[in-house]
Amino acid sequence: MATYVLVPGADGRAWYWHRVVPELQARGHQVVAVDLPQDDSVGLAEYADAVVRAVGGRSDGLVLVAQSLAGFTAPLVCERLTVDGLVLVNAMVPVFGESAGQWWANTGQAAARSAKAVRDGRGPDPEFDLRVDFFHDVPPEVTEQALAQELGSPSATLFAQPWPLRGWPAVPTRFLQGRDDRFFPVEFQRRIVQERLGITLEETTGGHLSALGHPAELAEAICRPPVGGGRSPVAGH
What we know:
Layout: E1 3-7, H1 21-26, E2 30-33, H2 44-55, E3 62-67, H3 74-78, E4 85-89, H4 100-107, H5 109-119, H6 130-134, H7 140-148, H8 156-160, E5 173-178, H9 186-197, E6 202-204, H10 210-213, H11 215-223
Protein backbone atom coordinates (compact mmCIF):
# COMPACT_ATOMS: atom_id res chain seq x y z
CA MET A 1 0.00 0.00 0.00
CA ALA A 2 1.31 3.44 -0.95
CA THR A 3 0.44 6.91 0.27
CA TYR A 4 -0.07 9.01 -2.83
CA VAL A 5 0.46 12.74 -2.32
CA LEU A 6 -1.36 14.53 -5.12
CA VAL A 7 0.00 17.99 -5.99
CA PRO A 8 -2.12 20.10 -8.36
CA GLY A 9 -0.91 22.31 -11.17
CA ALA A 10 -1.44 26.02 -11.77
CA ASP A 11 -4.96 26.08 -10.30
CA GLY A 12 -3.50 24.97 -6.98
CA ARG A 13 -6.63 23.34 -5.56
CA ALA A 14 -6.88 19.84 -4.14
CA TRP A 15 -10.30 19.72 -5.85
CA TYR A 16 -8.52 18.97 -9.13
CA TRP A 17 -7.89 15.44 -7.86
CA HIS A 18 -11.39 14.77 -6.49
CA ARG A 19 -12.21 12.13 -9.13
CA VAL A 20 -8.85 10.34 -8.74
CA VAL A 21 -8.89 10.14 -4.92
CA PRO A 22 -11.66 7.50 -4.68
CA GLU A 23 -10.07 5.53 -7.52
CA LEU A 24 -6.78 5.26 -5.63
CA GLN A 25 -8.54 4.51 -2.35
CA ALA A 26 -10.53 1.73 -4.02
CA ARG A 27 -7.20 0.19 -4.97
CA GLY A 28 -6.23 0.08 -1.29
CA HIS A 29 -4.02 3.16 -1.07
CA GLN A 30 -3.97 6.18 1.20
CA VAL A 31 -4.28 9.56 -0.49
CA VAL A 32 -3.36 13.13 0.42
CA ALA A 33 -4.62 15.81 -1.98
CA VAL A 34 -2.80 19.11 -1.46
CA ASP A 35 -4.13 22.66 -1.54
CA LEU A 36 -1.44 25.16 -2.55
CA PRO A 37 -1.23 28.80 -1.38
CA GLN A 38 -3.31 31.36 -3.28
CA ASP A 39 -0.94 34.25 -2.69
CA ASP A 40 1.18 36.14 -5.22
CA SER A 41 3.90 36.78 -2.64
CA VAL A 42 4.81 33.13 -2.08
CA GLY A 43 7.30 31.14 -4.10
CA LEU A 44 8.70 27.68 -4.61
CA ALA A 45 9.75 27.23 -0.98
CA GLU A 46 6.28 28.08 0.31
CA TYR A 47 4.66 25.73 -2.20
CA ALA A 48 6.98 22.96 -1.00
CA ASP A 49 6.13 23.88 2.62
CA ALA A 50 2.43 23.39 1.84
CA VAL A 51 3.07 19.89 0.50
CA VAL A 52 5.19 18.94 3.53
CA ARG A 53 2.49 20.22 5.90
CA ALA A 54 -0.17 18.24 4.07
CA VAL A 55 1.89 15.06 4.38
CA GLY A 56 2.09 15.61 8.14
CA GLY A 57 3.69 12.73 10.01
CA ARG A 58 3.19 10.14 7.27
CA SER A 59 6.44 8.51 6.29
CA ASP A 60 5.83 5.07 4.79
CA GLY A 61 5.45 4.48 1.10
CA LEU A 62 5.20 8.12 0.07
CA VAL A 63 4.77 8.69 -3.67
CA LEU A 64 4.45 12.25 -4.96
CA VAL A 65 2.18 12.76 -7.97
CA ALA A 66 2.74 16.14 -9.61
CA GLN A 67 0.47 17.70 -12.25
CA SER A 68 1.76 20.24 -14.80
CA LEU A 69 3.33 23.24 -12.96
CA ALA A 70 3.88 21.04 -9.89
CA GLY A 71 6.89 19.65 -11.76
CA PHE A 72 8.70 22.68 -10.34
CA THR A 73 7.58 21.99 -6.75
CA ALA A 74 7.60 18.23 -6.22
CA PRO A 75 11.38 17.75 -6.65
CA LEU A 76 11.95 20.27 -3.84
CA VAL A 77 9.73 18.18 -1.59
CA CYS A 78 11.90 15.15 -2.41
CA GLU A 79 14.80 17.03 -0.82
CA ARG A 80 12.88 17.34 2.44
CA LEU A 81 10.98 14.08 2.82
CA THR A 82 11.84 10.43 2.31
CA VAL A 83 9.96 9.67 -0.88
CA ASP A 84 9.72 6.29 -2.56
CA GLY A 85 8.75 7.61 -5.94
CA LEU A 86 7.83 10.64 -8.01
CA VAL A 87 5.17 10.45 -10.73
CA LEU A 88 4.98 13.45 -13.05
CA VAL A 89 1.71 13.91 -14.95
CA ASN A 90 1.64 16.19 -18.01
CA ALA A 91 4.30 18.12 -16.14
CA MET A 92 6.80 20.90 -16.67
CA VAL A 93 10.36 19.63 -16.18
CA PRO A 94 12.72 22.39 -15.03
CA VAL A 95 16.49 22.67 -15.09
CA PHE A 96 18.79 24.54 -12.71
CA GLY A 97 18.38 28.31 -12.86
CA GLU A 98 15.29 28.26 -15.08
CA SER A 99 12.14 29.98 -13.87
CA ALA A 100 8.66 28.76 -14.65
CA GLY A 101 8.23 31.95 -16.65
CA GLN A 102 11.27 31.14 -18.80
CA TRP A 103 10.36 27.49 -19.31
CA TRP A 104 7.89 28.15 -22.13
CA ALA A 105 10.34 29.84 -24.50
CA ASN A 106 13.25 27.63 -23.45
CA THR A 107 11.38 24.46 -24.35
CA GLY A 108 9.55 25.67 -27.46
CA GLN A 109 6.09 24.98 -26.02
CA ALA A 110 4.27 27.55 -28.17
CA ALA A 111 5.55 26.09 -31.43
CA ALA A 112 4.68 22.57 -30.26
CA ARG A 113 1.14 23.61 -29.30
CA SER A 114 0.70 25.34 -32.67
CA ALA A 115 1.92 22.30 -34.58
CA LYS A 116 -0.49 20.10 -32.65
CA ALA A 117 -3.36 22.47 -33.48
CA VAL A 118 -2.50 22.27 -37.18
CA ARG A 119 -2.46 18.47 -37.07
CA ASP A 120 -5.85 18.52 -35.35
CA GLY A 121 -7.31 20.84 -37.99
CA ARG A 122 -7.64 23.86 -35.69
CA GLY A 123 -5.13 26.02 -37.55
CA PRO A 124 -1.80 27.51 -36.40
CA ASP A 125 -1.42 29.53 -33.20
CA PRO A 126 -5.04 29.37 -32.02
CA GLU A 127 -6.02 31.72 -29.22
CA PHE A 128 -5.87 29.99 -25.86
CA ASP A 129 -9.29 28.79 -24.73
CA LEU A 130 -9.81 26.93 -21.45
CA ARG A 131 -12.53 24.74 -22.86
CA VAL A 132 -10.65 23.87 -26.05
CA ASP A 133 -7.13 23.52 -24.65
CA PHE A 134 -7.91 21.99 -21.25
CA PHE A 135 -11.48 20.69 -21.02
CA HIS A 136 -12.00 19.20 -24.48
CA ASP A 137 -12.19 15.63 -23.11
CA VAL A 138 -13.62 16.35 -19.65
CA PRO A 139 -17.30 15.40 -19.10
CA PRO A 140 -19.56 18.47 -19.54
CA GLU A 141 -20.92 18.31 -16.00
CA VAL A 142 -17.39 18.25 -14.54
CA THR A 143 -16.34 21.11 -16.82
CA GLU A 144 -19.27 23.24 -15.68
CA GLN A 145 -18.57 22.43 -12.05
CA ALA A 146 -14.94 23.47 -12.48
CA LEU A 147 -15.71 26.71 -14.31
CA ALA A 148 -18.50 27.66 -11.90
CA GLN A 149 -15.94 27.87 -9.11
CA GLU A 150 -13.44 30.64 -8.62
CA LEU A 151 -10.40 29.33 -10.44
CA GLY A 152 -7.11 29.38 -8.57
CA SER A 153 -4.00 30.96 -10.02
CA PRO A 154 -0.28 30.34 -9.52
CA SER A 155 1.89 32.80 -7.67
CA ALA A 156 3.57 35.46 -9.80
CA THR A 157 6.57 35.16 -7.48
CA LEU A 158 6.92 31.48 -8.28
CA PHE A 159 6.99 32.20 -12.01
CA ALA A 160 9.91 34.59 -11.53
CA GLN A 161 12.10 32.42 -9.28
CA PRO A 162 14.95 30.36 -10.74
CA TRP A 163 14.66 26.67 -9.99
CA PRO A 164 17.28 26.04 -7.27
CA LEU A 165 18.30 22.37 -7.69
CA ARG A 166 21.49 21.60 -9.59
CA GLY A 167 20.22 18.15 -10.44
CA TRP A 168 17.11 16.04 -10.27
CA PRO A 169 16.67 14.30 -6.90
CA ALA A 170 17.81 10.66 -6.76
CA VAL A 171 14.25 9.37 -6.56
CA PRO A 172 12.71 6.82 -8.94
CA THR A 173 10.80 9.00 -11.38
CA ARG A 174 8.08 8.20 -13.89
CA PHE A 175 6.47 10.54 -16.39
CA LEU A 176 2.85 10.01 -17.48
CA GLN A 177 1.74 12.02 -20.48
CA GLY A 178 -1.75 12.24 -21.94
CA ARG A 179 -1.62 11.36 -25.62
CA ASP A 180 -4.42 13.87 -26.34
CA ASP A 181 -2.86 16.81 -24.46
CA ARG A 182 -3.29 19.90 -26.64
CA PHE A 183 -1.30 22.19 -24.35
CA PHE A 184 1.81 20.03 -23.88
CA PRO A 185 1.66 17.68 -26.89
CA VAL A 186 3.05 14.21 -26.34
CA GLU A 187 5.73 14.55 -29.05
CA PHE A 188 7.00 17.73 -27.39
CA GLN A 189 7.01 16.13 -23.94
CA ARG A 190 8.78 13.03 -25.19
CA ARG A 191 11.70 15.21 -26.30
CA ILE A 192 11.80 17.32 -23.13
CA VAL A 193 11.63 14.31 -20.81
CA GLN A 194 14.41 12.52 -22.64
CA GLU A 195 16.63 15.62 -22.80
CA ARG A 196 16.09 16.78 -19.24
CA LEU A 197 15.55 13.56 -17.29
CA GLY A 198 17.01 10.88 -19.53
CA ILE A 199 13.92 8.69 -19.11
CA THR A 200 11.13 7.61 -21.45
CA LEU A 201 7.62 8.92 -20.86
CA GLU A 202 4.61 6.62 -20.60
CA GLU A 203 1.62 7.59 -22.72
CA THR A 204 -1.74 7.63 -20.95
CA THR A 205 -5.36 8.27 -21.86
CA GLY A 206 -6.61 11.83 -22.02
CA GLY A 207 -5.63 15.44 -22.39
CA HIS A 208 -3.97 17.94 -20.06
CA LEU A 209 -6.58 17.56 -17.30
CA SER A 210 -6.59 13.77 -17.25
CA ALA A 211 -7.49 13.65 -13.55
CA LEU A 212 -10.83 15.26 -14.42
CA GLY A 213 -11.36 13.61 -17.78
CA HIS A 214 -10.13 10.06 -17.22
CA PRO A 215 -9.69 9.46 -13.48
CA ALA A 216 -9.90 5.66 -13.53
CA GLU A 217 -7.37 5.34 -16.34
CA LEU A 218 -5.03 7.82 -14.65
CA ALA A 219 -5.27 6.04 -11.29
CA GLU A 220 -4.50 2.75 -12.99
CA ALA A 221 -1.45 4.29 -14.66
CA ILE A 222 -0.25 5.86 -11.40
CA CYS A 223 -0.48 2.51 -9.61
CA ARG A 224 1.00 0.45 -12.41
CA PRO A 225 4.45 -0.93 -11.54
CA PRO A 226 7.01 0.75 -13.78
CA VAL A 227 9.06 -1.36 -16.13
CA GLY A 228 12.22 -2.41 -14.33
CA GLY A 229 10.91 -1.07 -11.02
CA GLY A 230 11.33 2.56 -12.00
CA ARG A 231 14.35 4.58 -13.03
CA SER A 232 16.06 7.50 -11.45
CA PRO A 233 17.04 10.27 -13.85
CA VAL A 234 20.46 9.83 -15.39
CA ALA A 235 23.48 11.51 -13.85
CA GLY A 236 23.96 15.10 -14.91
CA HIS A 237 20.24 15.83 -15.41
